[in-house]
Design goal:
Elements lengths: L1 E5 L3 H12 L3 E6 L15 E2 L12 H8 L7 E3 L4 H13 L3 H29 L10 E5 L2 H16 L5 E4 H7 L12 E5 L3 E2 L2 H14 L3 E4 L3 E7 L2 E7 L2 E3 L3 E4 L5 H6 L7 E12 L11 E3 L4 E6 L2 E10 L8 H14 L13 E10 L5 E4 L5 E5 L5 H16 L18
Parallel strand pairs: 1-2, 1-13, 2-9, 4-17, 5-15, 13-20
Antiparallel strand pairs: 3-8, 5-7, 6-7, 10-11, 11-12, 14-17, 14-18, 15-16, 16-17, 19-20
Helix pairs in contact: 1-7, 1-10, 4-10
The site of flavin-adenine dinucleotide has 41 residues, from helix 1, strand 2, strand 3, strand 14 and strand 18.
Length: about 425
């Protein structure tokens, strides 16, 4: 059986790995010159079941409404993106209803835990040379109410098997001494020891090399123009280098899965949500942070990757626009200096690597995997802000399904058909 995967990011590559393990002939195509060059390039670096809550939490509509038009808001909706968000946005808001939110949260946690367990298999095969660290995630709170709310959420996570510890401000600083200058501002912290971190793009490189050695074919620099549908099947893919055929097709093209699927009559409720990151060289900073920290009040995530620091955040609905907006990047510089004031003498703004990417966000906050109404077309997209966390598990589930093997989690809960 031959499988063609469109997309050489985290989700396409993990799917390729497991399909090859099942003995399929696998080809991965991507328009970029190498693996992990789009959204999987410079993300926050964190694999965290602790942050598996969908973004459409109860009250999200008013929260977003209050931020409308504020250039420094963590969530920004650009007017030009509004038309493409209408139907999707309604579904997004509908899923913020508490019972639905909780159900989706639980689905994400199960997939995240499954995925983190599978990452051990990847490390056994690929090694840890992707700036892997298994030092958990520390969440910080600067006032009592959000800290209390987060503890309630953590209890919920605990019932689903995610371990955590509640910390005083002093205990949080003991865990991450780089926070000492802001100790008086910290109300408390939550520590999630099972979370891990690593450089997603480096992981993609290692995985590609391994898959290639196992016989997976890679076609980089190949733009897929359209899928060719006849009746209920895809009979080929028209790309920049002609026609390609296979028995099964996997759309793992991130946010671009939506227009590609739309052209063959499959509606995929995934829209791009732009996010930014900075990568800072911390080589000469002796007190540099040692573990990933999320500052709840600042909406900042800062993750050490070897001797670099990745600062990621902000969400912007701006369609497929990939321009870097200086104001959004300046927010990230401000956030990291507020969190770690002692970085200031070591922060070389000119040398910081600036990046943005499009999170493929599904309308209910859960990735979309597996079958579609077109019998040999499968999806692996929509993992939004959690694609690094979910990649291993999602790749395995989709590959198992295509190969006709039983899946460890009930794939129906993650399939496109759930949107009705
Ligand atoms: C700022 C930011 C921070 C983040 N932080 C985290 C984090 O800390 N933890 C976490 O779990 N997740 C995080 N994420 C989310 C995560 O990075 C994404 O969910 C994940 O990278 C998506 O992977 P993907 O394979 O679906 O998409 P992509 O990596 O975008 O891969 C899709 C591929 O398809 C290719 N493609 C698209 N269209 C075509 C076409 N027509 N022809 C050929 N090729 C095509 C693209 O070139 C691309 O390589 C973050 C995202 C952002 C933006």
């Amino acid at each position: 059986m031959r499988a063609l995967i469109i997309g050489g990011g985290l989700l396409g590559l993990t799917t390729a790995y497991f399909l090859r393990q099942h003995g399929l002939e696998v080809t991965v195509v991507d328009r970029e010159p190498g693996p992990g060059r789009a959204t999987s390039f410079a993300n926050g670096g964190m694999l965290h079941a602790s942050l598996a809550n969908p973004w459409n939490e109860p009250g999200v509509f008013w929260h977003a409404f209050k931020m409308l038009g504020r250039e420094d808001a963590p969530l920004l909706v650009r007017m030009k993106a509004l038309p493409s968000l209408l139907g999707w946005g309604l579904t997004f808001v509908r899923h913020s209803q508490p019972a639905r939110y909780l159900r989706n949260f639980e689905k994400n946690v199960h997939l995240a835990r499954y995925s983190l367990a599978l990452m051990q298999e990847f490390r056994a095969v690929l090694g840890t040379d992707y700036d892997y660290a298994g030092r958990g995630t520390l969440k910080l709170f600067r006032s009592a109410a959000p800290f209390a709310a987060a503890q309630v959420m953590s209890q919920q996570l605990g019932t689903w098997g995610v371990p955590y510890e509640v910390l005083s401000g002093a205990a949080a600083v003991a865990l991450e001494p780089a926070l000492t200058p802001i100790e008086s501002a910290i109300t408390g912290g939550l520590y999630f020891p099972a979370d891990e971190s690593g450089d997603a793009q480096r992981f993609c490189e290692l995985l590609t090399a391994h898959c290639r050695a196992q016989g997976v074919r890679f076609e980089f620099g190949l733009q897929v123009q359209r899928l060719l549908r006849r009746g209920t099947r895809i009979e080929g893919v028209l790309g920049s280098q002609g026609l390609m055929t296979a028995d099964a097709y996997v759309l793992a093209a991130g946010s671009y899965a939506t227009p590609l699927a739309h052209a063959v009559g499959v509606a995929v409720p995934v829209r791009p949500v732009k996010g930014y990151s900075l990568t800072l060289d911390t080589g000469d900073w002796p007190g540099r942070p040692s573990r990933p920290v999320i500052d709840d009040a600042l909406h900042a995530a800062v993750c050490p990757l070897g001797n670099r620091l990745r600062v990621a955040g902000t969400a912007e609905f701006a369609g497929f626009d990939l321009r870097l907006t200086p104001a959004r990047l300046n927010n990230l510089f401000d956030l990291v200096t507020q969190l770690y004031p002692s970085i200031a003498p070591h922060l070389d703004r000119q040398r910081a690597a600036r990046w943005c990417g499009l999170r493929p966000m599904s309308a209910d906050g859960v990735g979309i995997m597996g079958r579609t109404p077109v019998t040999n077309l499968y999806l692996n997209t929509g993992h939004g802000p959690l694609g690094w966390t979910m990649a291993a598990g999602a790749g395995r589930l989709v590959a198992d399904d295509i190969a006709g093997k039983p899946t460890e989690l009930n794939l129906e809960a993650y399939q496109l058909a759930r949107f009705g």
